[in-house]
Fold this sequence. Notes:
Helix content is 22%, strand content 22%. With 160 residues, the protein is α+β, with helices and mostly antiparallel strands. It has one domain. It has a two-stranded antiparallel sheet with strand order 1-4. The protein is globular, with a radius of gyration of 18 Å. 12% of the residues are buried.
Amino acid sequence: xxxxxxxxxxxxxxxxxxxxxxxxxxxxxxxxxxxxxxxxxxxxxxxxxxxxxxxxxxxxxxxxxxxxxxxxxxxxxxxxxxxxxxxxxxxxxxxxxxxxxxxxxxxxxxxxxxxxxxxxxxxxxxxxxxxxxxxxxxxxxxxxxxxxxxxxxxxxxxxx
Length: 160
């Protein structure tokens, strides 16, 4: 699609909401996407398209490292985590091989370089050529921005 000039493609892979049975479900999910995600990035790189293509892999929010529900050897899961999330990005002007942000050993409290979701959105929009401050939509007579009413900042640390 990128080779044919499509400006945006989105791929969904369902089933990551593992509150239970994570020992079986998570490895299967990872096997489904691991080689495919790697292959996509390598293919774009080989064809000279990675510099102009932003690849984003993320979920709806973060996950705790601790178990949810009754803890058994064979059936356990993770809970939602609204304050921390993991995203990987490649290409599109993103600095490769770096980590931005750090949590404590329980993956609960943010220790270094917090990135607000609106800052992540502003950064993504910036990398695809959209000024997040000018992008708004009307709702109930008001102008709303995808990056919220507070000032969102582009996360310069992750950019080339």
